[in-house]
Amino acid sequence: MKLLKTHAMYQSETIILDKNIDLDNLNNKLLNMKDSDSFIIVHKNGISNIIKNNIGIFSGNQFAYIPNLKEFQFEDTWFIKKPSINILDKILFINKELFNKYQTEFYIPIYWNIKNKEYEIIMPKQSVNSASVTFEYIQDPNLILVIDLHSHGNMSAFFSSTDDTNDSTRFKLSMVIGKNDNIVSRMVINSIAYSIDVNEIFNSKERIDFDKIKFRSNKLEIKRPKIKKECKYHNELV
Ligand SMILES: [Zn+2]
Question: How many angstroms separate the alpha carbon of residue 132 from the centre of ligand 1?
Answer without folding.
Answer: 7
